Amino acid sequence: MKKGAFIEINEEQFKAFVKLPKDTSVVMLNLLKFKELVPETGLSGADSYKEYMKKATPFFINAEAEILFMGKENIMLIGPEEEGLWDKILLIKYKTISDFLEMIQAVGYPSHLRNQALEDSRLIHCS
């Protein structure tokens, strides 16, 4: 993992997030950079992330999450050219913050698969 990579939730920011009104909708911006190879599985990070999405789909359905966008960056029009582009971008809408929190804390939620697939990531609460 490169220096300055972010995979796990920042506890201080999470504490602030959980204090927000639980009945408000939330859109989460996911910026993802995949590992070339995941040692635990022998798969590429991209393929490992596909496995995460398969296993996470029932949790998304249960939370009534809506994937608004899933795609890849192409060209940096504003920003430093030397900055690496993300492998995948997702925008996911949840009806409520409570739905999101219940999903990520549910027994069996496969966050470990997400974490092992990623070299770096950002998860940004948008409103």
UniProtKB/TrEMBL annotation:
Organism of derivation: Maribacter spongiicola
Q: What is this protein called?
A: DUF1330 domain-containing protein
SUPFAM superfamilies assigned to the protein according to its UniProt record, in alphabetical order:
Dimeric alpha+beta barrel
Query: Sorted alphabetically, which InterPro entries does this protein's record hold?
Result: Dimeric_a/b-barrel
